[in-house]
Amino acid sequence: MSTPAVTRAYVRPRSYVRVAGPDAPDLLQRVLSNDVLATESCEALLLTPKGRVIAPLLVWRRGADDFLLLTEPELGEAVTAELRRLRVASRCEIEPEEHASVVVLGGDGGIPTRDFGVPAVEVLDAGIDARPPDEELERLRILARTPRWGRELDGGILPAEAGLDERAVSFTKGCYPGQEPLARLRNRGHVNRTLRVLELDGEARPADEVRYEGRAVGRVTSAVPGLALAYVRVEVPDGAELEVGGARARLH
């Protein structure tokens, strides 16, 4: 991985799991939600059979039989344990690795990331001088509608509610755990709420109620001054005037 030209760089806390061996490509293609063999890197999900999220992943194919899975800091052990359980007789190693991730906005030469809605890459072990995540980075994440584990994502969230079916799910490759309920929802139903961006006249806090025409229609999950992410019922129209914490808000 080449070192990118640095514009703005931020530390990205991560856990890392290596999956390597002759059967690694087949295993990951069978158990992850996206087509991990189509490109060098992609977003994917590790799901329960009922289509609930165990962990969001960034999958990087380092070699023909060598993959590195990047996930949230608190999910590394869960990913390792679940993949080992699903491995059965597959000839591959599944082990944690230690690295240091930096997100470079406007850079190239790393693993592309869509998490912030602007051209950006994630770089490992490059020794780049990076700042801690701040309000600017959080604002970009909110505008990009990227869910964060422990805020917008947990074991009770469906990928379609968080918009992850648009970026981390293949509906054309073979079966994987959770594939059937995801396909059924896409073809014959819809979710009741989705993750949406709110413009605020004031400030909001996570768990603040979102109200529309006098009734509760959702809750805030993340916020910075003037902006928030919230799960809002799908029948609320784009541009609707809302109320959050007693202040006016609008669907972005």
Secondary-structure blueprint of this entry?
Blueprint: E1 8-12, E2 15-20, H1 24-31, E3 41-47, E4 53-63, E5 66-71, H2 76-87, E6 93-97, E7 101-105, E8 111-112, E9 120-124, H3 135-143, H4 179-188, E10 193-200, E11 209-212, E12 215-224, E13 227-233, E14 241-244, E15 247-251
Antiparallel strand pairs: 1-7, 2-5, 2-6, 3-4, 4-5, 7-9, 8-9, 10-13, 10-15, 11-12, 11-14, 12-13, 14-15
Walk me through what this model shows.
A hairpin with a 2-residue loop joins strand 4 (53-63) and strand 5. This protein has helices at residues 24-31, 76-87, 135-143, 179-188, and strands at residues 8-12, 15-20, 41-47, 53-63, 66-71, 93-97, 101-105, 111-112, 120-124, 193-200, 209-212, 215-224, 227-233, 241-244, 247-251. The longest helix is centred in the first third of the chain and has 12 residues, at 76-87. It has 4 helices and 15 strands. The chain is an alpha+beta fold. It has 2 domains: 8-143, Alpha-Beta Plaits, CATH 3.30.70.1400; 192-252, Aminomethyltransferase beta-barrel domains (Elongation Factor Tu (Ef-tu), domain 3). The protein is globular. It starts with 7 loop residues before the first strand and ends with a strand. Strands 10-13-12-11-14-15 form a 6-stranded antiparallel beta barrel. A 5-stranded antiparallel beta sheet has the order 3-4-5-2-6, with helices on one face.
